Amino acid sequence: MGARDVDGFDHHVLKSLLGAWALAACSAQESAAVEEHLGTCGPCADEALRLREAVGLLHPEESLDLDPGLRTRVLESCLGRRPPRIPLPEWAAPYDAETARLDALLQDIGDAEWHAPVRLRWFENDEPVSRKTTVAGVIAHLLAVDGLVGTALGLQDPLGAEAPPVPDPTRRTEAFWRASHFPPTRAVRGPWRDQTHELIRTVSFAGGGSGRLAVGYGTVDDAGGEDGQRVELPLRDSMVERAFECWIHAEDIAEAVDYPYEPPSPRHLHHMIDLAARMLPTTLAERRRSGRAAPSRELVAAGAPGRSLRLEVEGVGGGEWFIPLDSPGASGSAESEVAHIALDGVEFCRLAAGHVAPEEAAAGQLGDREAIRDVLFAAASLSRL
């Protein structure tokens, strides 16, 4: 029966891994244990053959590319039939989905493609900037910045002693690139994948209440230095932000290796759009303090509403947001609307990622031109390395 343990896995655990193994969704350790077990357990070997044949029906042999969404669809179907014993907080679902999709893409690319050039793009001081790296370098970047969430949850920092004293995403990336093989190799996929699994596992056990935990992203002042206000996001927003960056950089990788890649599901895309829209008032206020946005026109009268801009995001995952223009703590409203921007949801996300210039983003603009420009540039200012 092959009942002996293999690398600490008993028969029942190994049998439960057969479906994931057939989909190439196991870790290297799990795959090795399953394959050793199949050599001694006839029933499991028969089941593994049946599952691999089923995967073959889903995926014709003449194509070498598995559908990147296959793993996500299978997992969603399984969870829909049998709810998990430890449910994943709803705000962590986009990160779970986007890391799984990127991992499926990485599974399909060849050794040489890990060194394919990738140009990371963002906006800095209202100008487009870029940094050249490789596919492996992008995964190293995601590993380093995801580590900020991990350390907030009490997990081991992937940078270890190389971590800079200031929890800044750019500094962490540069430190990791310097400390690793340069350029990084495909070996970075294992630590990145393990960390994503550990993050999902930890927030699942911690429960939905952990969403209020603060995740630090360093400090900035009005001139872009490090002696000013501390930058923090609650864990629930930080997980959405990490899902957003995972998707954007997965598109960067897919473009570099000439591979098709779809946007997130409408529900997850809405989470990302909503986070960016909620961050706009604070970003706009920071730009105003540094002289890069028009001065506030907040009314002096007590209780008088400030101006609002209506942001209409069209397409799947979209919606409508009223952005307060004069005070980040105010609530926008239709009654105080002075301008209106309408644009596609994916386009808005690419604007927030620094992949689309503010001047080219909005499909429709109406009202106060100065307010429209300030909000579009504030959206682009959300981007960073």
TrEMBL record:
Q: Per its UniProt entry, which superkingdom is the organism in?
A: Bacteria
Q: Which InterPro entries match?
A: Anti_sigma_zinc_sf, DinB/YfiT-like, Znf_put
| Pfam families per the UniProt record, alphabetical | zf-HC2
Q: Which residues form the Putative zinc-finger domain?
A: 16-45
Q: What are the UniProt keywords, alphabetically?
A: Transcription, Transcription regulation
Q: Which SUPFAM superfamilies match?
A: DinB/YfiT-like putative metalloenzymes
Q: State the name under which the record lists this protein.
A: Putative zinc-finger domain-containing protein
Which organism does this sequence originate in? Streptomyces alboflavus
